[in-house]
Write a sequence for this structure.
């Protein structure tokens, strides 16, 4: 039998899943649009961002410094996440999603890369945030030739 309590619990889980999916998208939007306020809002104050086995940023200040360094290094970044799965456990959750990222280098060339994000989430005061994000299986492709727009052809022999 369906009760008000069971419906309330189900609704709470649906709302949590939607909030966690939004959180993953806000991470990408914050990074790509250089929106430091949005970027900061996705992390717990004691968060850890592990971008590779030898690059680990601990605490919101360190994480913000790291993304600002990326912004100085790359004129344009574009992240796309897919296959986001979430396992809820009360006020904590675990998630995983695949990411593809396109990055423009200062000389105009582009690099395509990506990997998988493994996340630990925490709900504090009714707001979900990333407490730990680890990049696994990262990859980068060789830089592509610069392009100025649609229809441009580079280095085609006569």
């Amino acid at each position: 039998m369906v009760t008000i309590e069971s419906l309330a619990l189900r609704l709470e889980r649906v709302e949590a899943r939607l909030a966690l999916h939004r959180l993953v998208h806000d991470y990408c939007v914050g990074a790509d649009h250089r929106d430091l306020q949005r970027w900061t809002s996705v992390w717990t104050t004691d968060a850890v961002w592990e971008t590779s086995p030898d690059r680990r940023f601990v605490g919101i200040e360190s994480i913000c410094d790291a993304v600002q360094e990326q912004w100085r290094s790359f004129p344009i970044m574009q992240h796309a996440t897919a296959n986001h799965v979430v396992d809820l456990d009360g006020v904590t959750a675990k998630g995983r999603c695949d990411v593809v990222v396109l990055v423009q280098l200062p000389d105009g060339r582009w690099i395509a890369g990506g990997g998988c994000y493994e996340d630990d989430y925490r709900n504090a005061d009714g707001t979900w945030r990333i407490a730990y994000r680890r990049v696994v299986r990262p990859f980068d492709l060789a830089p592509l030739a610069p392009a100025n727009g649609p229809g441009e052809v580079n280095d085609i022999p006569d």
Observations:
- The domain at 4-140 is CATH 3.10.450.50 (Nuclear Transport Factor 2; Chain: A,).
- The radius of gyration is 19 Å.
- The beta strands are 43-52, 55-58, 76-89, 92-104, 110-124, 127-140.
- The chain has one domain: 4-140.
